[in-house]
């Protein structure tokens, strides 16, 4: 194997040292990857967000034609605050058949494998291209991927597959759910609790919204999609956090909820979101009837589309042929794959390591999984030369 385990681990060591947290500038890690590719004669384009502080990366190795395969991964990692790490979080530590560090499995391990095969790709007689499509801020809900997907389409090259290398233990995920993540702030009118009519309780109205969401979730569960590959086979809602109020004898002036609607393809979630927004509008109207200064404001945290389950997808064909995996499943979590699929770029989720090791203290990836990924990518290189 030309792209050796040691090569991939050396690259992973560099990548883990970048604390590339969501919402912060990622130009250092993107710049490192850009320079690495430049040193190997590969032009990589950095596509910046409006702030100029974050960037996606897109590179093409081989002829700029259709039929390529894109290797996609996100450069950001989740924070380590409040976690009980026993090893340095932003250094790669090798212990037996595992390597530890934040992002080792989610998902800098895949990025390291993709970069490790670059020297072989550059010297190979590629008949069809291999693209590298690396995104920023996937963890908060695929913030960077929509722009990169649109930019990819604008190049005019139609890949046969976009392989999003999230940790799947090198098993094929051909579909996943999408989601709407929101933060809703209820602003009431404070007053003494001895006379509730002298104010508006933000907490009481937030509780009514929670009850509405709970009822909506029960409605979804009562109508599962027949023959759906997704589990559970229906949309779900969840209120993740709640906070507000100043004391038990004070009419609550504020209350904030973080909540999500998780949608099951082929549903795009637009209709249920309209129902939710209409309910909030009615609640706000009621709050403002006596106190016009009361309000309900919902902030869009993220929208990430689902990945449609398509057993005839060209992306699925590519990965199954190269991996020998005949079975494939759907996942309840979201990835960047849905963003590529929405733009007409056939996508699949397939990568080294286990999702069980993601986001935890002492995150790790098995070196055997890195070796398996390198072997898969060597097969991809040979395929693109045929």
From TrEMBL:
NCBIfam families: AcOrn-deacetyl, PRK07522.1. Its cofactor is Zn(2+). It comes from the Bacteria. Residues 177-283 form the Peptidase M20 dimerisation domain. PROSITE patterns: ARGE_DAPE_CPG2_1, ARGE_DAPE_CPG2_2. It is an enzyme of class 3 (hydrolase). The keyword Nucleus does not apply. It holds the Pfam family Peptidase_M20. The lineage of its organism: Bacteria, Pseudomonadati, Pseudomonadota, Alphaproteobacteria, Rhodobacterales. GO terms for molecular function: acetylornithine deacetylase activity. Its EC number is 3.5.1.16. This is Acetylornithine deacetylase. Belongs to the peptidase M20A family. ArgE subfamily. Keywords: Amino-acid biosynthesis, Arginine biosynthesis, Cobalt, Cytoplasm, Hydrolase, Metal-binding, Zinc.
């Amino acid at each position: 194997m030309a792209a050796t385990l040691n090569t991939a681990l050396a690259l992973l060591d560099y990548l883990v040292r970048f604390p590339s947290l969501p919402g912060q500038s990622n130009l250092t890690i993107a710049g490192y990857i850009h320079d690495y590719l430049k040193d190997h004669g590969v032009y990589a384009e950095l596509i910046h967000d409006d702030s100029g502080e974050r960037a996606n990366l897109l590179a093409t190795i081989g002829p700029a034609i259709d039929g390529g395969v894109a290797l996609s991964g996100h450069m950001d990692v989740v924070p380590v605050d409040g976690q009980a790490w026993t090893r340095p979080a932003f250094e790669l530590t090798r212990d037996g058949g595992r390597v530890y560090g934040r992002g080792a499995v989610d998902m800098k391990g895949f990025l390291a494998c993709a970069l490790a095969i670059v020297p072989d790709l550059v010297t190979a007689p590629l008949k069809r291209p291999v693209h590298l499509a690396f995104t920023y801020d996937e963890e908060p809900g695929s913030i960077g991927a929509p722009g990169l997907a649109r930019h990819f389409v604008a190049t005019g090259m139609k890949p046969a597959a976009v392989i999003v290398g999230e940790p799947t233990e090198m098993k094929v995920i051909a579909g996943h759910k999408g989601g709407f993540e929101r933060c809703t702030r209820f602003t009431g009118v404070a007053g003494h609790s001895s006379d509730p009519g002298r104010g508006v309780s933000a907490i009481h109205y937030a509780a009514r919204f929670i009850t509405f969401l709970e009822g909506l979730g029960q409605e979804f569960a009562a109508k599962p999609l027949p023959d759906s590959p997704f589990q559970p086979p229906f949309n779900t809602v969840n209120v993740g956090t709640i906070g507000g109020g100043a004391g038990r004898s004070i009419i609550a002036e504020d209350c904030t909820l973080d909540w999500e609607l998780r949608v099951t393809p082929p549903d795009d979630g637009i209709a249920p979101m309209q129902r939710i927004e209409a309910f909030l509008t009615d609640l706000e109207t009621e709050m403002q009837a006596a106190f016009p200064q009361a309000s309900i404001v919902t902030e869009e945290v993220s929208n990430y589309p689902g990945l449609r389950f398509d057993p005839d997808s060209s992306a699925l064909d590519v990965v199954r042929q190269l991996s020998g995996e005949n079975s494939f499943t759907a996942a309840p979590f979201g990835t960047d794959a849905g963003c590529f699929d929405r733009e007409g770029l056939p996508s699949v989720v397939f990568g080294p390591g286990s999702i069980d090791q993601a986001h935890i203290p002492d995150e790790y990836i098995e070196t055997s999984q890195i070796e398996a990924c390198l072997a898969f990518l060597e097969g991809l290189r040979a395929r693109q030369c045929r």
